[in-house]
Amino acid sequence: MGYQEDMAQAGRLIRDYDGTWDGISGESVARMRAQNKFRTGLDIARYTARIMRADMAAYDADPANYTQSLGCWHGFIAQQKMISVKKHFGTTKGRYIYLSGWMIAALRSEFGPLPDQSMHEKTSVPALIEEIYTFLRQADARELGMLFRDLDAARAEGDELKAKQVQAAIDNYETHVVPIIADIDAGFGNAEATYLLAKKMIEAGACALQIENQVSDEKQCGHQDGKVTVPHEDFIAKIRACRYAFMELGVEDGIIVTRTDSLGAGLTKQIAFSKVPGDLGDRYNSFLDCEEVEGAGNPGDVLINRDGKLMRPKRLPSNLYQFRPGTGEDRCVMDCIASLQNGADLLWIETEKPHIEQIAGMVDRIREVVPNAKLAYNNSPSFNWTLNFRQQVFDSWQAEGKDVSAYDRAKLMSADYDETELSIEADNRIRTFQRDAAKRAGIFHHLITLPTYHTAALSTDNLAKEYFGDEAMLGYVKGVQRKEIRQGIACVKHQNMSGSDIGDDHKEYFAGEAALKAAGKDNTMNQFAA
User: What are the residues facing 321 on neighbouring strands?
Assistant: First the structure.
């Protein structure tokens, strides 16, 4: 129901209780309901899944409609991000939140900082989803509360035009609640473990689960060495587990993002089961690095039949098998096609550099089989974007016959090159990377996994350097507070941001004139009204 309908319905209910509920205001009830639009995480998951599906369809119609997100490791960070998006762009459309397993491991584990190897508590993943949505819902309550106060002020002044304008803003209010793409790592165990965790994540509000094809107990960060993949049937079982979790909980249009780490993974823990030549298992095994053997081989050998020949897969002391070098792209393509043909909605190809043509080359091959294949892509802080793009420009200019003798390719990161023609061109390519990759390489969603980890470190370093140095208090005032005031950062009024005004409103609802409110003339937050 809309605000007016909700107020009328609450008023009728109050009147039905023969005066015993007359201390309750129907309009106050309507306001509290408006400030609590999403009663459960499943309400959020269903709402955001619809948004994401509509955005995917819009992208299929025009790649200019790509979407973006930033990774957030705390509810407050996510809240401030979405407040900023609404302030600067007027809408949250096309902007999501990414929930990074790396940041949970590094920042949210009770063990303290951990590497991205699925060693953190699996319950910390749904807990962070719930925390993020708690903060986003509080952002709604805060902003609506300010609109309600504006409405009361307009009424008190008899300004009917202003009252209608504020009422329209309330009726057409856009929530801060947006889709979360949530990292379930490699499922934290077998398919049953994946299903159980997926349910918790969906119940917390996640409409999109991102799962990777690494071995759960050997999981590594996507940008580190030593990655081990699993045969397709094992991974497909986990895709099905996620889909069953969505279906069971009534989020029928939930999104599954399947990540392949095959480009950088040269190892597998097991040889795939194969029934007939050419099936998925046989094709997976075809990439194993093998040597032909005579007779029965050595004790402990595992042998396979390849084209009528007895072959010994190369086996490491770790009991892992290795793939032939140079097969990563072919395995990525096969992984992606298999995932899409078995229930995945979006792909994620983890690459070692941000190179549009490398990604597009694989996507072109995938789209020969699945024409509407599209990706979520990690614009990773693990890439040295400056060096990568300067080298890409250097290489393209060199191939075109342009004189690059003024540049040392190995030292292009140097600040000495910052104002050169090459660096300016590289920065332009970085600026348009997302748009260009969306158009050329099928990337529907661009995300940065760890941006707020790095911004927290950078801003804290700057503050500590100034505050504990000669600038002292001016380091905070000039570097933080003055900028907050002038840039209109919501949390400069930190009491308001934390919910103090919402609490005052509730006190007035509950106690009327007897309410002891915090927002009086002596509240120091009044200094920020100007």
Answer: 268, 315
**DSSP states of 361-406:** HHHHHHHTTSTT--EEEE--TTS-HHHHHHHHHHHHHHHTT---TT
pLDDT tens for residues 405-442?
Answer: 999 999 999 999 999 999 999 999 999 999 999 999 99
Region 75-89: mean pLDDT is: 97
- Helices and strands (H, E) in the chain, number of each type: 20, 14
Q: Helix, strand, coil: what percent of the chain each, to 5? A: 50, 10, 35
What is the DSSP secondary-structure string of 226-265?
Answer: --EE--HHHHHHHHHHHHHHHHHTT-TT-EEEEEE-TTT-
Is residue 88 over pLDDT 90?
yes
* Inter-CA distances, 190 with 320, 348, 387, Å: 19, 21, 40
For residue 292, the one-letter residue type is E
Q: Which two tokens stand for residue 263?
A: 């480009």
CA distances from 68 to 73, 89, 373, 448 (A): 17, 13, 18, 8
What was the pLDDT predicted at 236? 97
> 497, 528 in Cβ contact below 8 A?
no
Instruction: Report pLDDT for 225.
Output: 56
The rounded distance, in Å, linking the Cα atoms of 251 and 49 is: 8
pLDDT at residue 454 in the model: 95
CA-to-CA distance for 344 and 257, rounded, in angstroms? 6
Q: Determine contact, residues 508/501, Cβ cutoff 8 Å.
A: no
Residue appearing with tokens 């005052």: 504
Q: pLDDT tens, 348-388? A: 999 989 999 999 999 999 999 999 999 999 999 999 999 99
- How many CA within 13 A on the CB side of residue 378? 28
Pairing of strands 267-268, 304-306: unpaired
Tell me what the pLDDT averaged over the chain comes to: 94
pLDDT at 219: 64
**Judging by DSSP bridges, how do beta strands 67-71 and 95-99 pair with one another?**
parallel
Is 221 annotated as catalytic? yes
Give pTM, 2 decimals.
0.93
SS3 state at 215: coil
CA–CA separation, 472 and 189 (whole Å) = 50
Q: Which of 207, 221, 332, 336 is an active site residue?
A: 221
Sheet containing strand 228-229, strands side by side:
228-229, 267-268, 321-322
Mark out the alpha helices in 114-159 (DSSP H runs).
Answer: 124-156
